[in-house]
C-alpha cells in the first residue's frame, strides 16, 4: 500500500513510515532554508541596529548643539526652549524610523512653539502675563506673520531631502527581513513533499541508507519545489539596486550629517531675523492678540549675544565615520547576495545531501 516508494523489490517500509518521512522532509527543508537565510538575515538585522544607533548618535549630537545655542546665545529662554528642542528631535527620529509623520509638520510645530518664547523673552522681554490664551494666539499668529522669514522653509526643504533617504533605507531594511521571513515559511506543495521523500528516503526502504541522491536529480527536485521562491530573483536584484541607490543618496548631496548639524545655525538665523523685525512683529501681534501685561522698566531686547560654536566635533566625526563605513560594508555585502534567490536550489543541494565523490548515487528509481 505504499504511495511514494513503490518498487519491484521487497521493501521494509510501511505507509505510516512514508507519512513520517513526509513530516521529516518538511521539517528538514524549513531548517535548511532557515540556515541559508540566517547569515543574510543576521547581516541585515545587525545593520538595522547599527544604522539606528548611528542615526540616534547624530540626532543626539545635533540636539545638544541646538540646546547649547539657547544656553550660550539666548539664556532668557534657554530653560523653556528645552522642551520644543527635545520634541523636534524626537519627531525627526520617529520620522526616520518610519512613523506616520512628516519633516515639515515637525519643524513647523517647533517654530510654532518657539515663537511665543522669542516674542516674550527676546523681542518684548518685559511681558509677564504669558497666559495659555495669549501663548496660543502667538502660536497661531506665527503661521500668518512668518516671523522667522525664509529660514523655517529652508530648514524644511534641507531636512526633508536628507532625512528621506534615511527613512527609505530604514523601511527597505525592514522589508528585506519580511521577505526573508516569508520565504522561510513558504509551504511545500504535496507534489514537492512526495518528490523530496522519493529523493531522500525511498532508498532507505530498500536498505540503502548510505546512498545519496545524484546532483542533477537533486537540482531538478529542488528547483521544482522552490520555483515560487526563485521567482523572487528579479525583484531581489532590483531591491539590492534600490538599497545601493539609497545608500549613495545618503552619502551624496543630501547628506544627513550636514543637514542635522546645520539645524543649530538655521534656528539661530531664524531667531535673529525675528529680533531684527521686532517692532513690526510687535505692532501686528498687538492688533491680533492684544497687549499683554508689562513689567515696569522694559528690558532692552537689543543685546543679541553672538553664537559660540559647539566644540563637540570629535563626537560628530566619529558618528559620521561610523555611518559611512557601515554604509559601505553593508552595501558590499548585499551586492554579493544578488543571486541569493536564483541559486537557492544549488545551495540546498550542496554539502552532505548529495553524493559528489562517488560513482554511485540514487536517481529516484534505482542506484546508478
TrEMBL record:
Ligase recorded as keyword: no
GO biological process entries: cell migration; positive regulation of canonical Wnt signaling pathway; regulation of protein localization to membrane
Cellular component GO terms, alphabetical: cell surface; extracellular region; plasma membrane; side of membrane
Membrane topology: Lipid-anchor; GPI-anchor
Cell location: Cell membrane
Matches recorded under InterPro entries: Glypican, Glypican_CS
Main location: membrane
Keywords: Cell membrane, Glycoprotein, GPI-anchor, Heparan sulfate, Lipoprotein, Membrane, Proteoglycan, Signal
Function: Cell surface proteoglycan.
Stated family: Belongs to the glypican family.
Protein name: GPC5 protein
Native organism: Nyctibius grandis
